[in-house]
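re the bet — no i am not wrong, look at it urself. input seq straight from the record:
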Amino acid sequence: MINLVNKKYVPNRQNAVFFNLLMARISEQIIEQIRSTADIIEVVSGYVQLKKRGRNYFGLCPFHGEKTPSFSVSPERQIYKCFGCSVGGGVINFIMEIEGMEFVNAVKHLADQYSIELQIDESAEQSKDLITQLFEIHSKTAQTFLNNLGTEEGSKVLAHLESRGLTRETIKKFKLGYSMKQNNALLLAFRKEGVGGKAMQQSGLFIDTKNGYMDKFRGRIMFSIYNSAGKIAAFAGRVFESDDPAKYINSPETPIYNKSKILYGLHETKQKIRESKSVIVVEGYLDFLQLYQSGIHNIVAVSGTAFTDQHALQIKRFCEKVHLAYDGDSAGKAAAIRAGYVLLRAGLLPLIANIPDGFDPDDWVKRDGNTPFLKAVENAEKLLLFHFQNYKGDITTTSGKTAFVNDVLMEIVQIKDPVSRELQGRELSEIVGVSAESIFQSLHSMLEKLKRRQSFQKNNKSPKPKTEDKKQLLENDLIRICFAEDITIRKFLFDNVKPEWLVTDLSQKIYEKVYIHLHSANAPEPSLIMDELKNEDHRNKLAELVFDLEKITPSLKSAEDCVRRLEQNWLNIHIQSIREELKNAESSGSNPLPLMKKIDEFQSRKNNLSRQYPADE
């Protein structure tokens, strides 16, 4: 039995440790240079259409579907904040989130974009976190699979790929390859290199069997799956010369791979998609490769799953017009229709190309070249019309037409934007020859039922606790005051606030990062603090607190009042706790005097606070 785990992995327990390890690889001066050079408005504008409104810029959030802009960027503070889904951070955090990168690679990305020379100590193995290790494992694995095509066993696969019309240049560019039939070829290679057991376990490349760990992919044609940032995050293996009923097997979801978010080939085609303002979506890896090789570059493929809402959001970052070019059989047409409604809900324009029956884009382009395919894309039908033309029921009868209308209305009712709903309703009316009044009457009835169902579900849920109690609101005030321009205020907080007074973990983690900047000559920079906050919830909360700082005017008096209330709350909590102990002491016959003295001591401190920081009359 081969033991996969050969050393213990201990995750970083504190943000400070994580950040210090990163600093060992990239100097703090370089990160500050990148942060000050990479203007957040310019960077975000590469992904989101922003419009200035007052002091800030607004646009549609790239992280969740919406019709009304709630995503705001502050040029003054160099941070972003979505008031719809609560994400927030600085320019480096934005690249990490939108491109799916870890911190170091986000810094590299911005350094490349702004021509900043970056020196990284790649030999500092101890600084590599799990995510970095996983990407390195996948990169080495892809190269191994590619190299396997040069072996005697892999030569048949290379010949097969070339017979399918793929050139060696395409095979190399997209890292196609072959996984050897030996059940532990990859495992032995990584163990020999001393790769950490935790990373190997979570890579999805190995499976645990009764005979020990072995390679997941064996004797298969391999497709490397890249994330949008161009890093290999997963693999798909196609059966080759085997009677295995599983035509494809794919990597499981891992810390670096979510199949519902990744579109195959997007890393290579996103710029072309942005330029052409449209994208062609195909079902298979070979469809993508054949079309890309033929010169069609505004294209992506779904990766081992049905088209999802997350896929739609990925596309929405780059364009609004989507051509679905699925297989020409009935299953392909049905899948294209389902994907079309997903796109429609996301506020995109879905069009469906008519592919000849019995063909997929790969076969069609290989046989006839890309001209007929491009013509089909150019003449693609709108979703509702395509659905009508390919409806399985008999639309020549009243009952069949009614069933079609109800099926479509069930999809339209899920569209949140009322204007888009109305437009689709009118289009449906024209297609089926039913009055718009009847369509909207049925749609209104469905909407009312949906609202009642949602209201019922909401009312029957367990009541949610208040998101923020008085203690949290008070601690929010403290965090905001920490960003005061007046150094006198910040020094007062530095000298008088004790971290243990903060009772919520959220505030403690944020204050821990802000505290060390309070005695600096300049006010803390929100974007810098956000880079140091590894936890997304902590970062989002800080973005919420500091985004509109100009709306408050911190004063020494407000700082004193905040300190007084914080200490009072802390004392009240301890007095209450000691009183509970006192009850137990009295019932058990223990001496209550020490506890009573402690209560008096804390009560005296409370009285002194009122004299030290008198409240306004």
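see?? Residues 27-119 form a domain with the DNA Primase; Chain A fold (CATH 3.90.580.10). told u. also Residues 422 and 440 are 8 Å apart (CA to CA). so pay up
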